[in-house]
Design brief:
This protein has an eight-stranded parallel sheet. Strands 7-11-10 form a three-stranded antiparallel sheet. The chain is globular, with a radius of gyration of 18 Å. The protein has 15 helices and eleven strands. Helix 2 packs parallel to helix 5 and helix 9 crosses helix 15. The structure holds flavin mononucleotide. The site of flavin mononucleotide has 28 residues, from strand 3 and helix 10.
Length: about 300
């Protein structure tokens, strides 16, 4: 794809809009616009002007069960001519053929080797090994390194690594293992170009790597149609402490309580998606600064292993 740095931003619904994607692509990585569970074709169209005249490759990511209910979402994405389309969290593969017909490469996030094999059999060009430590939704089955190494051993397509990569050390580790690139989510959430509010960014900066939990409590309370196999990794708070594992007892009042907490940015109750790499976030920075630091630190570490004459 002609990237200068092997970094792809994860397509994060509500966090990675066109501004963040454009900044990642300008900094030499692959910027991805993320469309999450509340995506619509109109919301995607509103983000596309940021990448329209980039003259650099960019990608678009969406959620499979959301896209399945809104055919115009995929139509809008493909009409924008991304270099890469990622459709996550479902195993109906018609979108792969649609992507290929439009000359677009297809990427699938997978939680284990059987899923990876199904994605490749369905024609996926790139597979993302999404480890359990990653932020946001995902099937938390295996940690990033054991998943990545297993997929690299068994697949012939390029494999990207996702989950917990928030530092130059993490980037160096997955590249040394053989990943073609890192698929980085949480480390970009606190960037100036993300769609998150200043208060959310500050909350992310104050979190440590033991502050996350995987839970369905928020999705069940809000009535989102996420399958039970796909919890989300969030910053743990009073709401998750109270309801995680007891989702069947959530009453109709919970949705209203949560909506109010989200609107008021009351982080003792409202959810913030983040992976275990959140502890590495120390300041609100631009995407260019984050990519510069990740890539220069990784390059320095990897150069130690270069064979000397
Ligand atoms: C705030 C946030 C929102 C996310 N939204 C999406 C999404 O809409 N679609 C998707 O495929 N993945 C989404 N993810 C998951 C990422 O694609 C990726 O698996 C994860 O960010 C990698 O782990 P990391 O956050 O530790 O870097 C999201 C992750 C975060 C942190």
């Amino acid at each position: 794809m002609g990237l200068d740095v092997p970094i792809v931003n994860a397509p994060m619904g509500g966090a990675a809009g066109g501004a963040l994607a454009a900044a990642v692509s300008r900094a030499g990585g692959l910027g991805m616009i993320g469309m999450g569970s509340s995506a619509t074709a109109a919301k995607l169209a509103a983000e596309l002007p940021h990448v329209a005249n980039l003259n650099r490759p960019f990608g678009i990511g969406m959620v499979e069960w959301v896209a399945a209910g809104q055919p115009e979402l995929l139509d809008t994405a493909l009409a924008a001519r991304p270099a890469l389309l990622s459709v996550s969290f479902g195993e109906r593969w018609e979108w792969v053929r649609r992507a290929h017909d439009a000359g677009v490469l297809a990427a699938a996030q997978v939680p284990d080797l059987p899923s990876a094999r199904r994605a490749v059999d369905a024609g996926a060009d790139i597979v993302i090994a999404r480890g359990a430590e990653g932020g946001g939704h995902g099937e938390p089955r295996v940690g990033t390194l054991p998943l990545l190494t297993e997929l690299l051993d068994h697949l012939d397509v390029p494999v990207l690594a996702a989950g917990g990569i928030s530092s130059g050390r993490g980037l160096a580790a997955v590249l040394a293992a053989g990943a073609s690139a890192a698929w980085v989510g949480t480390a970009f959430t606190a960037c100036t170009e993300s769609l998150l509010s200043d208060a959310t960014r500050e909350r992310l900066l104050s979190a440590s790597n033991t502050d996350t939990v995987t839970t369905r409590a928020f999705d069940v309370a809000l009535g989102y149609a996420w399958p039970p196999s796909l919890p989300e990794r969030v910053l743990r708070n009073d709401f998750s402490d109270r309801w995680d594992g007891h989702e069947e007892s959530l009453g109709p009042d919970a949705a209203a309580e949560l909506a109010e907490a989200i609107a008021g940015e009351d982080f003792t109750r409202s959810p913030i998606n983040a992976g275990q790499g959140v502890g590495a976030l120390t300041a609100v920075r631009s995407v260019a600064e984050v990519i510069g630091q990740l890539s220069s630190e990784a390059a320095e570490l990897l150069s130690r292993w270069t064979t000397r004459e």
